[in-house]
Design a protein that fits this description.
The protein is an alpha/beta fold and 290 residues long. Helix content is 50%, strand content 13%. The structure holds hexanoyl-coenzyme A.
Length: 290
């Protein structure tokens, strides 16, 4: 879909880039010429990923353990990267989540999610953004959210609340930092099964083929679709696009809200019967009026 050197000379940090969606995006950026940085809580996982990408694609991915819940550690880490040269892009991908009835959550359970998603993502964004402004550099920030930012979501309330906050951050900073050439967009992926997320969101296989059938496109997302959108948002050429959260979900969340969404299941015969019933009702009305 893109030229091989589309992201040449761009330096991009992907938080939580050692696994899951973060690893997929980091891989795609690197394959398109970017110098990629990945961070995450587990140093060994980051190292394995960097080695794997080196072996498979010959790309050099820089990695360092980082817990984004610590603002000081975040600022020190971002400072070390900028000492080598300014970043051009940031992907706020690191997150934490698990399903639980909200009444059973302890305050520490709530904080476990909010500290990573809400606070941690702000710390990284702030640390990168203030350096871009100081150094008069342009930049692109992508945050990985969820369609819950529009619908809310039962059973993952700390995540839904936190990601909704990041949607507000995306819109707010697009305005505040737009004059500096910094743009912020977010991606709200539908189901893109990964080991880490599915162990916590579908521990008993609750998100199954039936869930996918209910999605208008009838399937889960393909990783390359996410990779392509993230790469497009990171590349030059569409800088006027900022402040947007883009759903990448096969119209899943729109279909849940419509009164008639479930009618997709009807067959042609069902529709023909329905048409007859409606026609009969119309004719009856007309007769009554005449
Ligand atoms: C209820 C739970 C719980 C559970 C943890 N807690 N798991 N409460 N149900 N299943 C509570 C604990 O009891 C404890 O409270 C508190 O949370 C902190 O637990 P820790 O295990 O000490 O937390 P921590 O080590 O900080 O781990 C953070 C984590 C963990 C978020 C809980 O799951 C994690 O590290 N996840 C990282 C990766 C991840 O979650 N990936 C999925 C992202 S999916 P008490 O009071 O008992 O001390 C995503 C969106 C996907 O973000 C969108 C798809 C459409």
């Amino acid at each position: 879909m893109f030229k091989d050197d589309l992201l040449k000379d761009k330096r991009i940090l992907v938080t939580g880039g050692g696994t899951g969606l973060g690893k997929e995006m980091a891989t795609h950026f690197a394959k398109h010429g970017a110098q990629v940085y990945i961070c995450g809580r587990r140093g060994n996982v980051l190292e394995d990923t960097a080695n794997e990408l080196k072996e498979k694609y010959g790309v050099d991915v820089k990695h360092e353990p980082l817990d984004i819940r610590s603002p000081q550690d975040v600022d020190d880490y971002i400072g070390r990267i900028f000492d080598e040269g300014p970043l051009d892009g940031l992907v706020n991908n690191a997150a934490g989540n698990f399903i639980s009835p909200t009444k059973d959550l302890s305050s520490r359970g709530f904080d476990a999610i909010a500290n990573i998603v809400f606070h941690g993502t702000f710390y990284v964004t702030h640390s990168v953004g203030k350096r871009w402004i100081e150094q008069k550099c342009k930049g692109s920030i992508i945050s990985i959210l969820a369609t819950w930012v529009w619908t809310g979501s039962a059973y993952v309330v700390p995540s839904a609340m936190s990601k909704t906050g990041l949607d507000a951050m995306t819109k707010s900073l697009a305005v505040e930092w737009g004059p500096y050439g910094i743009r912020l967009n977010s991606i709200a992926p539908g189901p893109f099964p990964t080991e880490g997320a599915w162990a916590r969101l579908s521990p008993k296989g609750d998100i199954s083929e039936d869930t996918y059938k209910a999605i208008p496109l009838g399937r889960a997302g393909k990783m390359e679709e996410l990779q392509n959108l993230a790469t497009f948002l990171m590349a030059d050429g569409c800088e006027y696009l900022t402040g947007q959260t883009i759903a990448l979900d096969g119209a899943q969340y729109l279909s849940g809200g419509g009164t008639f969404s479930n009618l997709s299941e009807l067959s042609d015969n069902d529709w023909s019967e329905i048409r007859d019933i409606i026609r009969k009702a119309n004719n009856k009305d007309k007769k009554n009026r005449s």
